[in-house]
# Entry
Amino acid sequence: MTDRSDSASRDSGDARLTARVHGYVQGVGFRWFTRSKALELGLVGSATNLPAGKVEVVAEGPRHACEQLLAALRSAETPGRVEHVGEQWTEPKGGLDGFVER
# Structure
């Protein structure tokens, strides 16, 4: 799930990060942690539980802030146990308001 082909927004400007987080990340406060960090970084989007215990994180905003969120998702600070984070970078779609847990 890695796509780094959009070099136009890669270094600056806004981006959309879609991350799939695998591990023990449901029922442990992971989505709350993600929302808190995203809001601190000024991002909009969502953290959604998926089947098989995964969480999908969609975040839009400045590329550098999305990269900071991705680093936080991979850090030892997260609740639960993160085994793998897949990432996809695309152009922002807009239409998001705030950061919600689903």
